[in-house]
Amino acid sequence: MQEFIYYNPNSLEFPLNEEVLISSTLKELKEINCIVSNSDQVNAQVVAKEIDFYIQNSQDNLSNKMKNVGKLYKINALRFDLSLDMEQELQVDNRVLLIGTQEQKDDFLGSKLALEFEFYHIDASILKMIDGHMGSFEVIVDNDGKETVLKVSQIVWFDATETFDRAGIYDPISSSHDDVFEQLLQNTKGHIYKKFITYDSSICQYHDRRDEVCAQCVNVCPTVAITKDDENKHLIFSDIDCLGCGGCISVCPSGALDYAPMNTESFFQISRMYEGHTPLIIPAKMNIHEINIELKEHVLPLSIEGEKFLDESKLLTLLQESGSQIVFYTDFLSKGTTDAIDILNQIYKKKYNCKAILVAQNEQELQAALQEVQFVENSRYSINQTTEKKRENFAIRLEKIVDGQDLGRVITGPSVHYAKVNVNEANCTLCLSCVGACNVDALIADATDNTLQLNSSLCTACGYCELSCPEKDCLSIEQDMIELQPSWFTYNVLAQDELFACVECGKEFATKKAVEKIAHMMSPIFSKMSKTKERTLYCCEDCKAKLMIQEGLLHA
Ligand code: SF4
Ligand code: SF4
C-alpha cells in the first residue's frame, strides 16, 4: 500500500521525501488507498489537514520544510498505528418514535422519505423515561395510568426537553427536517461508531468502593456515554453514545481512562518527534484551512482528534520532550484541560519564569501567541519510556523540574485534584485500613520498620482513606495543592509503632498502640470479670483462646 499521498491541484513548489507520492490529478489517485494524506479527496485512513496549513504558513527554510512535512506524515502514521479506537458497526432497523404534537408529526412526515420508516407517535406529555441506546431504545410512557414500554431504534423528538446529545435521538427544531431524515436514513444503512476510551477498573476511584469518592468522568460527560451503577459501584460505558470529545480523560485523577485515538503511549511517542520544535496543538475540528498566519521558524502543528482529553501528564510530556512552550489553538477548553494548563503555568512560572502553555481561542490570539512562544532554556527532558499510569508519568517529569529544590506550592482544582494526606501519629493505631483503601499505592505499610508511608505524588486526592480511617482526629486530607519539593515524590513516614509481644508466648502480634488502645477501653470491664480475662487483652489470638479455655476449666 502507498503509505503517504500529497494531493494538490496546484501541485507543490518543493520536493518531498520519496515515501510521499505527490500528485496534482485526482484521477491518478483514484484507485490508491493510503495511510496518510493531506487531502480528504484521497482515500486515506488519516486526513492530515495541518500539512497544507504548515506548508502555506511556515517560515521554516526550504530544507526544514521538506523535513518537517515528512515528519508530519510520520507523526500521523504513528498515531494511526498506535491508536486503539476500533470501529464498530450497529445494525439499526426502521422503527422510529416521533415525540411531539400531531401538527409537528404531520409536518415532519410530509416528506417522501417517510415511507422508508415505520413511525410511531406520542405526545411529549406522556413520556416518562428513555432507556437503552440507538438500535434498542426502550421508551416508557404513561398509558392512562399504566406504564407501557415502546421499543424503537431511533427517536425524533421535537424540542427535546432533556439537554443531552445522544446518538439516535434528533431534534428537528435544533437542526432541520431534512437533516434529521438524512441522519435517520444514514443510520439504517449501518451506524459506524468508535470506541474512544479505554478503561482500567483496578485504579478507578469509583469502581467497587463502598462510598462514592469519584465519578468525575460521569459528571463531565455531555452525553450518557458513561453512567454509574450505584448499587454495585460499577461504571457503564456506551460506546454508541460517546462523542469522542475526551472530557472524561482530562478529569480522571488516576488515569483509569485513556483516550483511544491518542493514548498515553501514542502521545509519548509523538511528543518525542517534537524535539527542537514548538508544538502548536490544534483540534481537528478547528477550521485551519482558511487561516493565513505566520508560523515562525520551528513551529510545528500537532493535530488532535478530540479537543478535551489533554491532561497535565500529557501536556508536560509534550512540553519536556519538545523543550518549548506550547501554543494551544482551540475554541473550547474542557474543565480538566483548563485546570491542567493552570497547574503547569504555575509550575513553569515558578521554575522558568514563563507560562508553559499559551492558549489562543481566535485568530488574533493565535497570532499573538505565535509571536510570543519560545523554547524554554533547560526545560527539555526526555525519558526512554513512559509508564501507563498518569500520576506516575507526571511525577517522574515534575520531579525533574523540582530538581532537589523547594519551589513552594501550586494550587490545583477544582477539576484536577492533588492533595497531601496528613496523619496525627498520636491517634494512629496502624490498623492499615487506609492502606487497604488506597488502590494507587500512594499509601503503603512497611513491615520492616512498622511504618505507614505516603507518596503524595501518587495520591489522587480521592479521600477514600479518610473515610476508611476508624480513628477519630487521625487522618485528614489537605486538598488542592502540590508541594514542589523533593519530599513530594518519595515515600514519607506518616506514623510508626513498635510491635507488641504476647505476654504468654512472646510472639509479636499487633502494634503496641493498637493493643494499648483496646486494653484501655476494655480493662475496666474485663478486670471486673477476672484477672485472666484482663490478661487476654495482651495476648495473641492463640493464647487468648488457650487462656479462655483454662478459665472455663477452672470454673468448671
Ligand atoms: S474519573 Fe476515573 S477514577 Fe473517577 S470514576 Fe471515572 S474512571 Fe474512575
Ligand atoms: S492516599 Fe487516600 S486520598 Fe490518596 S489516593 Fe490513596 S485513598 Fe485516595
UniProtKB/TrEMBL annotation:
<keyword id="KW-0411">Iron-sulfur</keyword>
<feature type="domain" description="4Fe-4S ferredoxin-type">
    <location>
        <begin position="450"/>
        <end position="480"/>
    </location>
</feature>
<feature type="domain" description="4Fe-4S ferredoxin-type">
    <location>
        <begin position="232"/>
        <end position="262"/>
    </location>
</feature>
<protein>
    <submittedName>
        <fullName>4Fe-4S ferredoxin</fullName>
    </submittedName>
</protein>
<dbReference type="Pfam" id="PF12838">
    <property type="entry name" value="Fer4_7"/>
</dbReference>
<dbReference type="GO" id="GO:0046872">
    <property type="term" value="F:metal ion binding"/>
</dbReference>
<keyword id="KW-0004">4Fe-4S</keyword>
<dbReference type="InterPro" id="IPR050157">
    <property type="entry name" value="PSI_iron-sulfur_center"/>
</dbReference>
<feature type="domain" description="4Fe-4S ferredoxin-type">
    <location>
        <begin position="419"/>
        <end position="448"/>
    </location>
</feature>
<dbReference type="InterPro" id="IPR017900">
    <property type="entry name" value="4Fe4S_Fe_S_CS"/>
</dbReference>
<keyword id="KW-0479">Metal-binding</keyword>
<dbReference type="InterPro" id="IPR017896">
    <property type="entry name" value="4Fe4S_Fe-S-bd"/>
</dbReference>
<dbReference type="GO" id="GO:0051539">
    <property type="term" value="F:4 iron, 4 sulfur cluster binding"/>
</dbReference>
<keyword id="KW-0408">Iron</keyword>
